[in-house]
Specification:
Its main location: membrane. Pfam families: Trp_Tyr_perm. This protein is mainly α. It has a single domain, classed as Amino acid/polyamine transporter I (Up-down Bundle), CATH 1.20.1740.10. Helices cover about 80% and strands about 0% of the residues. The protein is built from 19 helices and no strands. It is globular and about 60 Å long. The N and C termini lie far apart (about 55 Å). The relative contact order is 0.19.
Length: about 425
């Protein structure tokens, strides 16, 4: 291309804007609304140390993820290109890992929607008691979520842009509102070195997931490859969209986390952890006036519910594929009742999250437990590809050591937290 042709081809357009919005929307979910709780529990110094490693490593790993995918000859889903690079067994393993990520998301968002909505209803005086531990309330919440998510992709994508922009705006506004409640007394003393290292490793899943949007990178890269004959052009556009989304998220989320933890005490964070609610619901309980409560409610609805919708679409397709794979092994195609399979998927999608809601499993523990999955998918597997596949050797760089370090910290987080 000439310089003029390159400028015309790389001009930022509505498609680029759409992918930036999708990346930001994917990142703003349970990770961000529960980040202040964990930061408040362990102290802001731990978060800063974790972020010093985690945020640069996340940028490098997502860039590496794009690079290893965009140059693939077929450029299909990431499990597919893993199969091409390393064999079918690796593709099967990665597909299963992705399914676990979706299950974790469904469980996390179901609990968060139930507990936080009950807390907000009680905070606004709509209910006289907190309904979060009422079994039928949890069932009603999950039924409503599944019913809305089942309206189809067009319905969900139609409202995505407005919701994402609203979510991002509310994050920034809330961060500024919380400044009036800042207190130096809420900054815990600098911890000893052993505590700092251990808690920074346990903190890593929260740091990474607060601005993680790796799930959106595969469809984005495939889209750019499909609509651009030039791999160089597709790579440029994908990296640019990722850079813009990452920069916006980092600035917004970092300011949000710092502002919340200057305004909330360690005791408040521990109370939120024990109640299994987000920092937003906790703030709605403790700060007088309706402004913060309304903004917190908006962010909770848009962040957690839209994240549930996105995760449900993938969960439904993955579960259907798993069930059909099993049925095809024991029954001929004509004897498979697809209507029953469809209703069976809906039943599983309701009953499994409802069970997790009933036992009220800690969301903070969920995020820590699934740290190794994010470490594998986002850090260790892409780095392994670069060193294993000669075709990808051009992406080797000393900075990958930071990606490996972050991946190892994610894998080690649950071991240090629970053993």
């Amino acid at each position: 291309m000439t310089e003029e042709e390159w400028k015309a081809a790389t001009k930022f357009n509505s498609t680029d804007f759409g992918w930036v919005i999708m990346c930001i929307g994917m990142a703003i979910g349970a990770g961000i609304v529960f980040l202040p709780v964990q930061v408040g529990r362990v102290g802001i110094w731990v978060y800063l140390f974790s972020g010093l490693i985690g945020y640069p490593a996340l940028w490098l790993s997502q860039r590496l993820y794009i690079n290893t995918l965009v140059v693939s000859p077929k450029c299909e889903s990431y499990p597919s290109i893993i199969s091409d690079y390393l064999g079918k067994n690796w593709g099967l393993i990665l597909g299963f890992v992705y399914f676990l990520m979706l299950i974790k998301a469904i469980f996390t968002y179901s609990i968060a929607c139930t507990n936080d909505s009950a807390t907000f209803l009680h905070s606004f005086g709509v209910t006289s008691t907190n309904l979060g531990r009422t079994p039928l309330y949890g069932l009603a919440v999950i039924c409503i979520l599944v019913a809305l998510a089942s309206q189809g992709e067009k319905f969900l994508f139609k409202i995505a842009s407005g919701m994402v922009i609203t979510k991002l705006s509310v994050i920034v506004v809330l961060a500024f509102i919380m400044m009036q409640h800042w207190s130096v007394a809420n900054i815990v003393n600098f911890p000893n070195f052993g505590y700092l290292i251990k808690q920074a490793i346990i903190m890593m899943p929260f740091t990474i997931t607060s601005i993680l949007f790796v799930q959106c990178l595969s469809p984005m890269v495939i889209s750019y490859r499909t609509h651009n004959d030039s791999i160089v052009l597709a790579k440029y556009k994908a990296i640019r969209a990722m850079n813009i989304a990452y920069t916006i998220l980092f600035i917004s989320v970092f300011f949000y986390a710092i502002s919340f933890n200057f305004a909330m005490s360690q005791q408040q964070a521990i109370a939120a952890y024990n109640q299994n609610i987000s920092a937003l619901a906790m703030v709605a309980q403790g700060i007088p006036g309706n402004t913060v409560k309304v903004f917190s409610l908006i962010l909770n609805i848009f962040a957690i519910m839209t994240a549930f919708f996105g995760a449900f679409l993938g969960f439904r397709e993955a579960l259907q594929g798993l069930i059909m794979n099993i049925l095809h092994r024991i029954l001929p195609e004509e004897k498979i009742n697809k209507t029953m399979v469809k209703y069976g998927i809906f039943a599983v999608a309701i009953l499994l999250p409802w069970y997790v809601i009933l036992i009220n499993f800690s969301i903070v523990k969920f995020i820590i437990i699934f740290g190794p999955i994010y470490g594998l998918v986002n850090c260790l597997i892409p780095t392994y590809l670069v060193y294993k596949v000669p075709f990808l050797a051009k992406f080797k760089h000393a900075s990958l050591a930071l990606v490996v370090l972050a991946g190892c910290m994610l894998v080690a987080a649950p071991l240090l937290a629970f053993l």
